[in-house]
């Protein structure tokens, strides 16, 4: 769930209530497979690639992508996770805590990083992630893979690999698991 | 959470939350660039009325790793200024637009008095004999690293409990986490009304060490032998010091902690600090991470609102 | 000075309680029908009319500490608190240890709206070494001597004092504190001092001195008054001594009726007092002692401090709280029956000061017109900013109290009307 959901949640909390399912488990599996093929094609193979999932929503998708890439190419791409709590631009405006320690197991110099998140919304989380990555080296390139792009960008950020494009209203919420993608709203 | 003044103003959940997020801050130290912009633009004043290189540096590094600016407020500690108006110092700092003040003072209660005159967050780095909450937090974190879940574990604390803010804070924190604490000291160095503390008190160190899961040594100041509290340091060391023999009798897995600085030859025999089971270096390293967590919680996480519940709820719906 | 007619009040004095009118003319109480028609009428319906309150323990600041309080500001505070007489403590600069200083203080006290009696020191400069000229002090009308502070620590000196003072008929008073046992103490020793990390003085530091001086009073046959006792143990020791015939009296400060060491949790320096706030069971014993009469007097122990002396770390703050404007209300808020309160704050302290026995000092024709009119139900919030005292240190800051002084009449003159000092 993008941070807009969290920010809109009354107040900083509440639960998600689904209005409609947008992707079922099979559609999700196919989307992951397609994105994996796109990654291989775009980068001419998996040499020098690192998959980094954003805590916490991007971790599961990242793991599934690594599995899918292994199935296609027979190569296990290194997997890391990054927590962007320390790099957010809205610190002090609302409660945010680190979810889990950042874990980047290898130096990122000259590598291609594929950042993975569940929902791309305003783009601020991704910007924070780009900032955080700098502490671990200087990648040759950074690409972005998301399960859902729901529009309403506030920064010049775009995804290279998209599971599903989903136009939404600002007040709506999107929930992503590896079994279901739903659109709905946050209620207290 | 606006201030961190004492352990007994925290709930067990608050305590666990700090310990839970500390590893994220420890990780920052491992990065090639061990600095994150979380507190960029904020200023932390270090108001240390008592000399303390170790704690002050720890807070300074913690603040800098979060990209906060630090300000060392040098306070003359001559006896002439002992009665100097606290309020004047507080208002000077406030006028400079500080976001947080870390204060250490030899008089109990000073951090509470400062909160009356400051808008900034106040962090107690040790007040008189009263509290040293960040020390207790890093001690709990270190003990958790060594022992896992502290519930039911037996911690033995030895030394001048009566005059120890570390003892007061640690006893509260450890018992909140479910540990059982035994305090070992001569009767003159136990605080009054010890029966009202949630601990066992003992004057027999050897008996207490037999079933200890961890040993915590407190510093024994040489001044105490001049106040008719103990006859002399030699007798103190014989009965209450962690001699080489006592250390050898401990199982190797029993960690030995000390808040520092150590009086080698008094509360701890000269060679004992070199043993592997003495985890003082871990304590110091963890101290920076814990203090980063505290600074982040007070200044960085928007915790003007009540903090952990809302975040926990938000996380649960993702 | 115009005559007064106090109408419809409940008169409470040593003769009893009853609703009746009271007349005042030329500074004395007269029968209500003897008052001229031009008399000012004071409506005292639903109020208690009492003989003026007498405070046996107030620090008036002057001479020497005018920044903290003067006779003018202290006098206003006194009459607003219902006191028509205060006993000014001698720990001034200079100390009241000669007749000359006594006269000087009396001259300064003319600025006060209430009567001011002057207490003298026991030893020269209260240094605890040489006896002050007690005979000379008695000759100029000093009724009460105390060294304040640490009192008389040396037992031999205390014996000599009690023996020497006997023929003068003056009251020797002692704050009870064994200094060595309370060395470095900032508060009461107990669970709270243990928790707050402050050095504490055990109750025994006071009780040992009480026991010692009662033995000396018994040995010498002298009369002795204990200032500001604070522990249940002290009250019990005094009670037993009184029953066995020793001529001992005791006072308790109003803050010891209500506040305990738990009230120091926020390190409020205005609650740092000497003797320190004790356990809550001691406050209960104090209230019971006042109600039963075992404690003779409730005093204000009014100790004004300038702000800078209190805005320091707790262990460096000067001790003391103001009390003239709240003492009566504190006693009433603690639900002590008003008859007992008035005995402890008017009849008995007057007697101990030689101002007449309770039966002499009553609301009856011929008596001096020192009168306090009290509304025992009116509530108010304590704020040193609006108090008349120059001191800003009240242990009751922000507290809600019940029992307000409506009017205070000193020697027939109305000095407080409707809770305000009359211009």
Description:
The complex is a heterotrimer of chains A (188), B (318) and C (423). Chain A contains four helices and eight strands, in the order H-E-H-E-H-E-E-H-E-E-E-E. With 188 residues, chain A is an alpha/beta fold. Chain A has a single domain, classed as Rossmann fold. Chain B is of the alpha/beta class. Chain B folds into two domains: 7-132 and 284-307, Rossmann fold, CATH 3.40.50; 133-282, Rossmann fold (3-Layer(aba) Sandwich), CATH 3.40.50. Chain B has helices at residues 12-28, 53-65, 86-95, 110-117, 133-147, 165-176, 205-210, 233-240, 244-249, 280-300, 308-316; strands spanning 43-48, 69-73, 100-105, 121-127, 154-158, 180-184, 200-202, 214-217, 256-257. In chain B, the strands form two sheets. Chain B has a five-stranded parallel β-sheet. Chain B has a four-stranded parallel β-sheet with strand order 2-1-3-4, sandwiched between helices. Chain B is globular and about 55 Å long. With 423 residues, chain C is an alpha/beta fold. Chain C has one domain: TIM Barrel (Alpha-Beta Barrel). Chain C is 27% helix and 24% strand. In chain C, the strands form four sheets. In chain C, strands 1, 2, 3, 4, 5, 16, 17, 18 and 19 form a nine-stranded mixed β-sheet that branches. The longest helix of chain C has 18 residues, at 203-220. Chain C starts with a strand and ends with a strand.
């Amino acid at each position: 769930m993008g941070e807009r959901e969290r920010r809109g949640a009354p107040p900083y909390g509440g639960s998600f209530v689904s209005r409609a399912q947008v992707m079922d488990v099979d559609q999700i599996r196919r989307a992951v497979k397609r994105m994996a093929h796109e990654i291989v094609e775009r980068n001419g193979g998996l040499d020098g690639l690192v998959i980094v999932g954003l805590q916490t929503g991007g971790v599961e998708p990242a793991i599934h992508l690594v599995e899918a890439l292994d199935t296609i190419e027979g190569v296990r791409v290194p997997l890391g996770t990054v927590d962007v709590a320390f790099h957010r631009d809205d610190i002090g405006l609302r409660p945010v805590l680190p979810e889990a320690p950042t874990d980047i197991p290898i130096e990122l110099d000259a590598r291609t990083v594929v950042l993975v998140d569940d929902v791309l919304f305003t783009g601020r989380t991704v910007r924070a992630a780009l900032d955080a990555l700098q502490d671990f080296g200087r990648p040759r390139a950074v690409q972005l893979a998301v399960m859902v792009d729901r529009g309403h960008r506030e920064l010049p950020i775009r995804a290279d690999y998209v599971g599903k494009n989903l136009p939404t209203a600002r007040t709506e919420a999107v929930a992503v698991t590896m079994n279901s993608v739903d659109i709905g709203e946050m209620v207290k | 959470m606006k201030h961190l003044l004492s352990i007994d103003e925290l709930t067990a959940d608050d305590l666990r939350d700090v310990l839970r997020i500390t590893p994220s801050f420890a990780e920052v130290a491992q990065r090639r660039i061990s600095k994150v912009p979380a507190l960029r633009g904020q200023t932390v004043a270090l108001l240390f009325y008592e000399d303390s290189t170790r704690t002050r540096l720890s807070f300074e590094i913690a603040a800098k790793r979060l990209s906060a600016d630090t300000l060392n407020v040098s306070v003359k500690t001559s006896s002439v200024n002992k009665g100097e108006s606290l309020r004047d110092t507080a208002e000077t700092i406030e006028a400079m637009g500080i976001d947080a003040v870390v204060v250490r003072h030899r008089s109990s209660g000073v951090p509470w008095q400062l909160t009356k005159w400051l808008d900034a967050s106040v962090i107690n780095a040790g007040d008189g004999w009263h509290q040293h909450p960040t020390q207790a937090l890093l001690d709990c974190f270190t003990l958790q690293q060594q022992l896992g879940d502290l519930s039911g574990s037996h911690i033995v604390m030895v030394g001048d409990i009566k005059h120890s803010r570390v003892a007061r804070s640690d006893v509260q924190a450890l018992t909140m986490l479910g540990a059982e604490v035994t305090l070992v000291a001569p009767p003159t160095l136990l605080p009054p009304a010890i029966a009202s503390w949630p601990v066992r008190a003992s004057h027999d160190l050897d008996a207490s060490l037999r079933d200890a899961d961890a040993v915590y040594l407190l510093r024994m100041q040489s001044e105490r032998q001049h106040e008719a509290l103990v006859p002399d340091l030699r007798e103190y060391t014989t009965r209450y010091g962690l001699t080489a023999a006592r250390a050898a009798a401990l199982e190797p897995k029993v960690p030995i902690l000390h808040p520092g600085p150590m009086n080698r030859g008094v509360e701890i025999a000269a060679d004992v600090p070199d043993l592997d089971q003495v985890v003082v270096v871990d304590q110091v390293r963890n101290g920076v991470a814990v203090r980063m967590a505290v600074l982040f919680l007070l200044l960085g996480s928007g915790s003007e609102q009540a903090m952990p519940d809302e975040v926990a709820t938000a996380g649960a719906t993702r | 000075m115009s005559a007064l007619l106090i109408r419809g009040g409940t008169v409470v004095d040593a003769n009893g309680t009853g609703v009746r009118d009271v007349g005042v003319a030329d500074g004395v109480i007269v029968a209500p029908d003897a008052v001229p028609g031009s008399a000012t009428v004071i409506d005292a319906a639903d109020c208690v009319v009492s003989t003026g309150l007498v405070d046996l323990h107030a620090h008036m600041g002057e001479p020497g500490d005018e920044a903290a309080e003067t006779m003018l500001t202290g006098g206003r505070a006194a009459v607003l608190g219902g006191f028509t007489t205060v006993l000014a403590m001698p720990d001034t600069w200079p100390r009241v240890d000669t007749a000359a200083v006594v006269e000087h203080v009396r001259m300064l006290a003319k600025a006060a709206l209430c009567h001011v009696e002057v207490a003298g020191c026991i030893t020269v400069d209260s240094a605890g070494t040489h006896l002050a000229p007690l005979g000379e002090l008695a000759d100029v009308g000093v009724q009460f001597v105390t060294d304040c502070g640490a009192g008389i620590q040396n037992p031999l000196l205390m014996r000599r004092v009690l023996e020497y003072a006997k023929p003068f008929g003056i009251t020797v008073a002692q704050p009870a504190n064994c200094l060595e046992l309370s060395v470095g103490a900032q508060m009461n020793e107990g669970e709270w001092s243990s928790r707050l990390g402050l050095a504490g003085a055990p109750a025994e530091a006071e009780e040992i001195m009480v026991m010692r001086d009662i033995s000396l009073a018994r040995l010498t046959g002298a009369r002795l008054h204990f200032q500001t006792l604070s522990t249940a143990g002290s009250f019990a020791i005094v009670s037993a001594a009184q029953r066995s015939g020793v001529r001992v009296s005791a006072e308790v400060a109003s803050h010891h009726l209500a506040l305990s060491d738990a009230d120091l949790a926020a390190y409020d320096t205005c609650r740092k007092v000497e003797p320190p706030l004790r356990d809550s069971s001691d406050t209960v014993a104090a209230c019971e002692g006042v109600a039963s009469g075992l404690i003779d007097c409730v005093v204000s122990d009014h100790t004004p401090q300038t702000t800078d002396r209190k805005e320091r770390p707790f262990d460096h703050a000067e001790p003391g709280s103001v009390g003239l404007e709240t003492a009566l209300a504190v006693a009433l808020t603690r639900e002590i029956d008003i008859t007992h309160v008035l005995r402890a704050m008017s009849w008995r302290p007057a007697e101990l000061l030689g101002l007449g026995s309770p039966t002499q000092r009553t609301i009856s024709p011929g008596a001096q017109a020192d009168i306090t009119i009290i509304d025992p139900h009116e509530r108010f919030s304590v704020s040193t900013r609006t108090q008349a005292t120059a001191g800003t240190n009240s242990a009751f800051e922000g507290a809600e109290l019940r029992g307000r002084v409506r009017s205070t009449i000193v020697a027939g003159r109305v000095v407080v009307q409707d809770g305000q000092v009359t211009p």
